[in-house]
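Question: what's this shape?

___
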Amino acid sequence: MSSASTWEVPNADHPERRAILAAMTRVLAGTTNRKLTVKDLAEEAGLKRHHLVNKHTDLRDLFYAEVERSGVEREPAVVIRLRKEITELRDTVSKRNETIQELEAKNEQYAENLAVAIMRIRQLERDLAAAAARQSPSDEQQVPPPHGRNHLRSVPTGESGSW
């Protein structure tokens, strides 16, 4: 990029022209968020657009020539960088969405597998209960006698009035 010091322009010491040349340097270097337009150049220089359109037309023409010569996009470097970043972020989001869909599908399959396993466990529990019922001893043999102390309370005889 050219800089204000390398441009040969008449009356470069004039405050408006100095501001325009400095703004051109910044805008062409891409160090601002400005577009490569006369309107944005004027704003960067702190001037109204008509200063470039009507008064300093040689600087306007120089600006457009520098833009054309540089082959730079008419958008500032910051905007170009942000557009690239947005594209990369969209790619990242797209990949993550694909991953989410894959994980949701796996989750659905796991839920189905779990439901089948629960049904199988319940069936096995029913089968076990039925098999245990078929092999159960008679009602008398089902209740084992207590060990140690007599489990039945003594019935009061009525004489002592105690248990």
Observations:
- The chain has a mean pLDDT of 78.
